[in-house]
């Protein structure tokens, strides 16, 4: 089967799921979007509409095309409605138990040839695959936020992922006008394994009084041409998310160099989660 012949499904209509459905529909695919929470589904659909309008206003798509793209996204409220899909990308909450159950259900519902992909940022693809009867057809398809704009897709081979599955997902990413980059399954894959220790080290520098957050960020913006300094970025990602990922790296790779910065732990304990809570390394008024 060619990637263009896939019947696509997305599980979860949150930040990533609605972006993935948007990018698939914009590339011409019909996509079923399944979400367990009705308010989250409504929010996800509203976000897609707003983002399509924004793309039309910026001239990235033809304004007349926006409703056609939106009409390719079919909201579904029961997982059974995904049963005819040939490839489903799971973008549900980052909890192993949640994903395990979704993979088990999809494995029962979908045809024997269907591919199950996870957008997880840190959960082992090999572990998710082991809970299914089709480990060769389970793979990681790690998109980046905001999905409609970001080109990269980290394509993660689990230990048992077949070459055919990898090639199919790679072709789908290309059809979605993304750039697939191949990596193997290991804690944090490549993106978070390299990025998070940088953010964590920046926090150590602040904790040890080497420099203030503003100074650390300015060094990275001006000296390394990063669009956002590491502490601004950590606030944007969410300090709780950063801490979770550092713990996945520490547990999964077993090296003390991945020890979460104690300042990060204290800030999360205090409820200072970054932009979303109004306070992190910086304060936010909105
Ligand atoms: P989110 O909280 O915005 O969305 C998750 C959605 O999944 C929620 O709407 C929730 O109701 C839904 N959900 C939970 N259980 C479900 C189930 N059983 N069936 C269907 N829907 C279910 O989270 P997000 O930021 O979109 O993250 C989703 C996934 O993408 C996570 O695995 C995360 O690690 C990964 N990811 C996130 C980012 C990011 O920047 N936010 C980047 C890359 C990857």
How is this structure best described in words?
With 286 residues, this protein is of the alpha/beta class. It folds into two domains: 3-184, Rossmann fold (3-Layer(aba) Sandwich); 194-277, N-(1-d-carboxylethyl)-l-norvaline Dehydrogenase, domain 2 (Orthogonal Bundle), CATH 1.10.1040. Helices cover 45% and strands 13% of the residues. Strands 3-2-1-4-5-6-7-8 form an eight-stranded mixed β-sheet, with helices on both faces. Strand 7 (152-157), helix 6 and strand 8 form a beta-alpha-beta unit. Helix 7 (191-207) crosses helix 9, helix 7 packs across helix 10 (239-253) and helix 10 crosses helix 11. The termini are far apart. The protein binds nicotinamide-adenine-dinucleotide (NAD). Nicotinamide-adenine-dinucleotide (NAD) binds at residues 11-17, 34-37, 40, 91-94, 98, 102, 119-121, 142, 144-145.
Which short descriptors sum up this protein?
45% helix, 13% strand, alpha/beta, Rossmann fold, single chain, binds nicotinamide-adenine-dinucleotide, 2 domains, 286 residues
Distance between the termini: 48 Å
- What's the CATH first level of the largest domain? Alpha Beta
What is the CATH topology descriptor of the largest domain? Answer: Rossmann fold
CATH architecture of the largest domain: 3-Layer(aba) Sandwich
Topology:
Blueprint: E1 8-11, H1 15-26, E2 31-34, H2 38-57, H3 66-71, E3 73-76, E4 87-90, H4 96-109, E5 115-118, H5 125-130, E6 138-143, E7 152-157, H6 163-175, E8 179-184, H7 191-207, H8 213-223, H9 230-237, H10 239-253, H11 262-269
Parallel strand pairs: 1-2, 1-4, 2-3, 4-5, 5-6, 7-8
Antiparallel strand pairs: 6-7
Helix pairs in contact: 1-2, 7-9, 7-10, 10-11
Bound molecules: nicotinamide-adenine-dinucleotide (NAD).
Residues 11-17, 34-37, 40, 91-94, 98, 102, 119-121, 142, 144-145 line the site of nicotinamide-adenine-dinucleotide.
